[in-house]
Design a protein that fits this description.
Layout: H1 26-41, E1 46-48, E2 58-61, E3 73-83, E4 87-94, E5 97-107, E6 109-115, E7 121-127, H2 128-141, H3 152-165
Antiparallel strand pairs: 1-2, 2-3, 3-6, 4-5, 6-7
Bound molecules: zinc ion.
Zinc ion binds at residues 94-96, 136, 140.
């Protein structure tokens, strides 16, 4: 298992639409293992494959907040089947938008159809943090970041700040 580099905004790859996976094989499982390691290392609760530069519709999550307890979840080709009209608000952050947080409103409950680590078809009925997290991760598959829900001004301020933190570009 390998810890991969997480791409950060601004980066064109983060805006790519990820492609469905044909079948869950050894290669996909290895990718999920690496993604999980990368996510734990970065202290995140969710990671989409595109965040390490791979445009596949694969997500890993672990929203268990107890120390020394791991409850990894794997989602391949997730599709939202049902969204609740009720909304909830969480303060969201993102490993690809470091140190930036904003309150985002999303449907409070949703149903997601997906393939698990073993390629089996499953349905997740999510609410609360789990519902918000899976919707945030599924946005990544469409090239959408949580800052896209903010006003233009707020979003451009965040991107400007993030661009400043990147190392200087040199041409030699
Ligand atoms: Zn994210």
């Amino acid at each position: 298992m390998t810890i991969k580099k997480i791409l950060t905004e601004p980066n064109k790859l983060l805006r790519e639409i990820s492609k469905p996976v044909d079948k869950v094989g050894i290669e996909e499982q290895k990718l999920m293992d690496d993604m999980l390691d990368t996510m734990y290392d970065a202290k995140g609760i969710g990671l989409a494959a595109i965040q390490i530069g791979i445009p596949k519709r694969i997500i890993v999550m672990d929203i268990c907040r107890e120390e020394n307890k791991k409850e990894p979840m794997f989602f391949v080709n997730p599709v939202i089947k049902n969204k609740n009209p009720e909304k909830s608000i969480y303060e969201e952050g993102c490993l690809s938008v470091p140190n930036q947080f904003a309150e985002i409103e999303r449907p409070s409950k949703c149903e997601v159809e997906y393939l698990n680590y073993d390629g089996e078809k499953k349905i997740l009925k999510a609410e609360g943090l789990l519902a918000t997290c899976i919707q945030h991760e599924m946005d990544h598959l469409e090239g959408v970041l949580f800052i896209d829900y903010l006003s233009k001004l707020k979003k451009s301020m965040i991107i400007k700040k993030l661009s400043k933190n990147k190392p200087d570009r040199i041409v030699v």
